[in-house]
Amino acid sequence: MxxxxxxxxxxADIEEPLPQQEEFWRPPARFGSVPVEAEPQGWDRYRGFQKxxxxxxxxxxxxxRVSLGSDEAHEPNRLIWGDNLHVMRQLRSNSVDLIYIxxxxxxxxxxxxxxxxxxxxxxxxxxxxxxxxxYLIWLNARLYEMKRLLKxxxxxxxxxxxxxxxxxxxxxxxxxxxxxxxxxxxxxxxxGGSSPRLxxxxxxxxxxxxxxxxxxxxxxxxxxxxxxxxxxxxGASDVWDIPTINNMAKERIGYPTQKPEALLERIIGAxxxxxxxxxDFFLGGGTAAAVAQRLGRRFIGCDQSRVxxxxxxxxxxxxxxxxxxxxxxxxxxxxxHWGIYEAASLSGAPSDEFRGFVLxxxxxxxxxxxxxxxxxxxxxxxxxxxxxxxxxxxxxxxxGFANAIRESVQYxxxxxxxxVMLAWGFTQAARDAADYLRRCQHVDVDFIRLRQVRxxxxxxxxxxxxxxxxxxxxxxxxxxxxxPAVSVAYSVKGGRAVTFDAGDSAVVNFRAGDSAVVNFRAxxxxxxxxxxxxxxxxxATPGYSFRRDxxxxxxxxxxxxxxxxxxxxxxxxxxxxxGTWVGQVExx
Length: 588
Ligand SMILES: C[S@@+](CC[C@H](N)C(=O)[O-])C[C@H]1O[C@@H](n2cnc3c(N)ncnc32)[C@H](O)[C@@H]1O
Description:
This protein has 13 helices and 25 strands. It has helices at 84-89, 118-129, 131-149, 165-176, 261-271, 287-294, 306-322, 343-347, 351-361, 395-407, 409-414, 428-439, 462-467, and strands at residues 60-66, 77-81, 96-101, 150-160, 181-188, 203-210, 221-223, 233-235, 239-241, 277-280, 298-303, 333-338, 340-342, 365-366, 375-377, 380-384, 418-423, 449-454, 479-481, 489-491, 506-511, 524-530, 554-559, 563-573, 578-587. Helix 6 packs parallel to helix 7 (306-322) and helix 10 runs parallel beside helix 12.
């Protein structure tokens, strides 16, 4: 366009004031600086994401195998309690077909926190500390592991919203590749507030990426809504109209950020086949696991809230019971711990299982020669005591281990002198025997220096602490929790005996208020009741499971027939301890 001469030259000196422009938008303080690097936020050239999050190799502990009817040989599905980054680092590469995640949204609100369980709270403190870059580093380290876990034909859906979606997209392009992006699915829902000064926010975004260009996809169908094509099936678009679950919905379990099963049905139906492995590492109330179970997929679920894992376990059991799915085709599932362990159930484990666990936790590899050297950490022989909490190492154990060291090839070749004994406890005689062996150093070539480390003391977990000195969130790793001591009393109104009159019902008040936590500074966060316990598998009576407003320490239950009922009460504390009371109630 040609510039026209000014028709009023006398106006040439009058300058139009510039619009006010000195105020640029500034990100809120919690954003920090906006990310621009070519590598994912948090990536270190030499140490990858281990610079921010050092690797910790620890075993998982199976605390329960929930029987749904499949035989023992059938591989169970898995629910794992632990920080997902560390849990994922223990899982095999190329082993998962589909990952769905619904992480905290960088909304700055702690509304995801439901039970105030100490571990559930931790991620929020972590994430917000360094603003948006901190959040992206936290998420990237996890996305990086997810890519490793996906099979070459696998897919991932990351559920987020406007708070961070645009930043997450940039990071996912870096990690998975811009060309591996398939869709930004818009989940459009009805509920939510509105404001007169902006458009109502009624959607979340789901980023769908695949690991490679060859992937499984069974496009869902939906009915056309246009007048011309009404009723015809069309391939689904990337905008999904699915209502959020309201408070009355049957599937509602009360989890504040619970997603509708219809959403997960679409994702799991489109991007996996029957028998495929589906994983959700931000499990929450377990929507993805429940849908995967219903659609005949195998699954791995993980959450760092012990209560979220318990909610999901309960949901899977109830679904199996309701749908009468108790046949061999439904795999059992295990509830597993990573990083924080149940001392009581370790004590009851068979010796070789216990020994394997302790060696792995200590960073040692098991020895296979059957001698009194049970394992090796670097060049150091390791010995492990018995599983029972009360078992104590004796002087004979010390002698036996010292002799095994003397007889080992390494001893002769390299003047090996040191060894470590790991156990719940040591007798004074064992301490003295080790002392004696060490003191011979001045007079005897056969001397041996033995360290004796109790499994619950700091020396047992020193290899974790030295690797992660600056990370407060590692301080709980390799610690043990004790179950709360559950105590239940019951009565009927007026203190009468529990009686049942024909045509009436017996109302019984149960109280678990005298239950006591054993873990330091823990508090009870959840109580569940099973009024018809089958003696095998705890399954809460509907309505007696999880409540947001506090644990159900006192409840009333109506028995509508006479008989002897086995009642069970399960209590969880904020540190992950879980204890169960089982008793008989006579209703006559
Ligand atoms: C938004 S909720 C998931 C809700 C779920 N999709 C549902 O339908 O119920 C996010 C969950 O991620 C868990 N979480 C947060 N950080 C975690 C971490 N580092 N490892 C494992 N779980 C984590 C929280 O405890 C919370 O239960």
